[in-house]
Design goal:
binds s-citryldethia Coenzyme A, 3-stranded antiparallel β-sheet, 2 domains, 438 residues, mainly alpha, Rubrerythrin, domain 2, globular
């Protein structure tokens, strides 16, 4: 038997087959079992895809035990300390860090595509003022293909790059409109003289009449802009997480990129995934004081109680989430300006320490993840709690776009079509309604 293979034996039939053990440039090898049904007559079962590699990718690497996160080989710590979000988006999509000229050209291309069609702006008028921002995000992003239906040939490299850049460019204005519609404020358009995160904050919080003499007001505070760039970098990509896998599955059918991203946004919305940052703030506000921590820790441990400690645990990180370590430090810096958030942050720190010293959490390797602290920083930036997952969406669009581009560039792109273990009724005779009794 060759050493880079695995052998599988069906003990009920004695049949055996060998499969290649594929090794990547780092991380866990994968057994290529694509022919197992054809060879041995059974499917593999992996609820939640805990041990399943769905694709080959060169974009992001995670080592869950060592708390390592690399974007195109660069440690997240280095990117967080030295880059802007747009520079990171370029890296994820193109595979290399940009030169100064490349970055300037990419910035211009993103900025050029940052305003949305007036018809899309009118779409917001059909939403209730209290519609959840993520409901608006899903609808408006899916509608991009109703307005930008040229340049949608997924087999055309130039069209693909235009669509990816358009998505990066337009998400901040769409996100800001989700908020401004909810508070009844007029549209503020992106500006050519502001960088990506400044434009977003300006579109969120400034007023049209301010635009001619805009000053670096509180919403363009350099500390806030630096924190926002960092949060977007840390949330930009994360390998084959639930929403990225959703984008890839949609893309495998040949659907247009805007529809694929809308599918990803819908998946991200769930509280077990990107909705966790909003859920963390709601949880901290429900816990209220340090005295209540023990009660809620016990609820989280009680199998009969659906309550889980939001912001804790991760499918991959089983020692620490490197993003949480980076964010925790920034929290101190940003919240220093925000006295009223002090108690909430102190409660978060106390909850973290309590959980980290509790056997239940230690045995299950449940540590704070990226979302445990991100909501606190967004709150410090005056972002409303129901907009937190929208913020995650802006950032993760860079990763979704990178994975979509990688997938579209691959010559091998089969439609994703998992199988199942059927537990339903065996074949039975039809009974007309007249004979089914009362
Ligand atoms: C993100 O995949 C990604 O990369 C996601 C993400 C990204 O960047 O894309 O990193 C972003 O989604 C971060 C995760 C945000 N979600 C939360 O903070 C929600 C709270 N966390 C849990 O829902 C949970 O930890 C998950 C969903 C994150 C991970 O769940 P797993 O790996 O499927 O583990 P599990 O649900 O099977 O739990 C294993 C055990 C169970 O107990 P036992 O049955 O063994 O007794 O741990 C327990 C669970 O009950 N557990 C928790 C818990 N998380 C797991 N118990 C209390 N509180 C929790 N938060």
């Amino acid at each position: 038997m060759a050493k880079d293979t695995i052998s599988i034996i069906n003990n009920s039939t004695g049949e055996r087959a060998e499969y290649p053990l594929l090794k990547g440039s780092a991380g866990t090898p994968v057994a290529d079992i694509r022919k197992i049904h054809q060879d041995l007559g059974f499917f593999t079962y992996d609820l939640g895809y805990v041990s399943t590699a769905s694709c080959k990718s060169s974009i992001t690497f995670i080592d869950g035990n060592k708390g390592i996160l690399l974007y195109r080989g660069y440690p997240i710590e280095d990117l967080a300390a030295n880059c802007t979000f747009i520079e990171t988006a370029y890296l994820l999509m193109k595979g290399h860090l940009p030169t100064e000229i490349q970055l300037a050209e990419f910035n211009d291309a993103v900025n050029y595509r940052s305003a949305i069609h007036e018809g899309l702006i009118r779409l917001f008028q059909s939403f209730n003022h209290d519609s959840h921002p993520m409901a608006m995000m899903v609808g408006v992003v899916a509608s991009l293909s109703a307005f930008y239906h040229s340049e949608l040939d997924i087999n055309n490299l130039q069209h693909r790059e235009i669509c990816a850049t358009r998505l990066i460019g337009k998400l901040p204005m769409i996100a800001s409109l989700c908020y401004r519609h909810s508070v009844g404020r007029p549209v503020v358009y992106p500006r050519a003289d502001l960088e990506y995160c400044e434009n977003f904050m300006n579109m969120m919080f400034s007023r049209p009449e301010e635009q001619s003499f805009i000053t670096k007001g509180h919403y363009l505070d350099p500390v806030a802009i630096k924190a926002l760039n960092l949060l977007f970098i840390l949330h930009a990509d994360h390998e084959q997480n639930a929403s990225t896998s959703t984008v890839r599955l949609a893309a495998s059918t040949g659907a247009n990129p805007y529809a694929c991203m809308a599918a990803g946004i819908a998946a991200l919305w769930g509280p077990a995934h990107g909705g966790a940052n909003e859920a963390v703030l709601s949880m901290l506000e429900e816990i209220g004081t340090v005295d209540n921590i023990e009660k809620y820790i016990n609820k989280a441990k009680d199998k009969n109680d659906p309550f889980r400690l939001m912001g804790f645990g991760h499918r991959v990180y089983k020692n620490f989430d490197p993003r949480a370590i980076i964010i925790r430090d920034v929290c101190h810096e940003v919240l220093a300006h925000k006295e009223e958030l002090g108690p909430l942050f102190e409660l978060a720190l106390a909850l973290e320490q309590y959980a980290l010293n509790d056997d239940y959490f230690i045995e299950r390797k449940l540590y704070p993840n990226v979302d445990f602290y991100s909501g606190l920083i967004y709150k410090a930036l005056n972002i409303p709690v129901d907009m937190f997952t929208v913020m995650f969406t802006i950032a993760r669009t860079a990763g979704w776009a990178a994975h979509w581009l990688e997938m579209m560039a691959s010559p091998v792109r089969p439609i994703g079509r998992p199988r199942q273990l059927y537990e339903g009724s065996e074949k039975r005779d039809f009974v007309p309604i007249a004979r089914r009794g009362k």
